[in-house]
Specification:
four-stranded mixed β-sheet, 9 helices, 32% helix
């Protein structure tokens, strides 16, 4: 069957409310005055990956549960405005939402509304199979209910990537994703030994490529048992927010991967895209384009 979709993104559609605070953790007080204000906008992990791959010219389709509510309308508008195909499965509990507390240095703490999902949620198997059958690649976000779609994607034979975000290397919830994916991204933030965790993922699961991002320290690439440190790319403007940097890294990595680039080149593209994302305020959604990505990669000197 002819591929109609370059990247099928499963899960991670939702809305964030951005609250800028003077410091993290927030000092205990009855009230705080917030500048430059409190902003609610569509855009969680799956949305950002889909936005990134679309901006880089990849045919992208996003599948997730969405509520018939204000937050769902924001997510639908984001996809419509950026030309991202969306299959929204009705979610009676409402659209995923979170509050992000963002410090002056761009670090954040995310508070997720746990009432917007349940263990019994499922993506329709028929829909997953039909979309996977015409896709070159599937990127699976670790939000509920995507774990149950992993065996269906595996049956379809489509390559899978996932992002474990700030996994501590122990929480069993993440393991289904870590062991089923061919390409695994994760943050090194909560890991005492990122390299050991990367090797354990590769040894126990299917992944031939594991990438651990480490912020200003760059990233670590494990490809076919060879470990390489990827220095951070210089941001093209002042750093204002780290939100979405990992998603941008993944999107650019997939852009390179689907173009046939070797893993090292893909990781360097990811570093450039991640640095760009750190210059975008969390109250906006924007992704690096192909010309900016190539220009940044040309200037990037590890």
């Amino acid at each position: 069957m002819t591929a109609e979709i370059d990247v099928l993104v499963l899960g991670g559609a939702g809305v964030d409310t951005i609250v800028h605070v003077s410091e993290l953790p927030v000092p205990l007080a009855d009230s705080h005055m917030i500048q430059p204000g409190i902003v609610t906008r569509a855009g969680q992990s799956g949305d950002f990956v889909a936005l990134g791959t679309t901006a880089l010219g990849l045919r992208t389709h996003h599948l997730d549960l969405l509520g018939d509510d204000h937050e769902g309308a924001l997510v639908r508008a984001l996809h419509r405005d950026h030309g991202i195909a969306l299959t929204a499965v009705p979610q009676p509990r409402g659209t995923k939402r979170a509050v992000n507390l963002v410090g002056p240095d761009g670090r954040r703490v995310s508070l997720y509304d746990a009432t917007r999902w349940a263990e019994t949620d499922r993506l329709p198997g028929t829909t997953v199979r039909e979309l996977a059958a015409v896709s070159r690649h599937a990127h699976v976000v670790i939000t509920q209910p995507c774990a149950d779609a992993l065996p269906l994607l595996r049956e379809a034979g489509v390559p899978i990537s996932t992002d474990l975000h700030d996994w501590d290397g122990v929480n069993p919830y993440h393991e289904a994703f870590a062991l089923a994916a061919d390409l695994v991204f994760l943050s090194a933030a909560a890991l005492t030994d990122p390299v050991a965790t990367m090797r354990r993922i590769a040894e126990r699961g299917r992944a031939r490529i594991v990438v651990a991002t480490a912020g200003a320290q760059g990233a670590y690439l494990l490809a076919d048992d060879e470990l390489t440190h990827i220095p951070a790319a210089g941001p093209p403007a002042p750093v204002v927010d780290s939100n979405g940097a990992g998603d941008a890294f993944a999107a650019a990595f997939l852009h390179g991967r689907l173009a046939g680039e070797p893993p090292l080149r893909c990781a360097r593209l990811g570093a450039v895209a991640g640095a760009y994302a750190c210059t975008v305020p969390s109250t906006r959604v924007a992704a690096i384009g192909p010309e900016e990505l190539l220009a940044g990669a040309a200037e990037y000197a590890p």
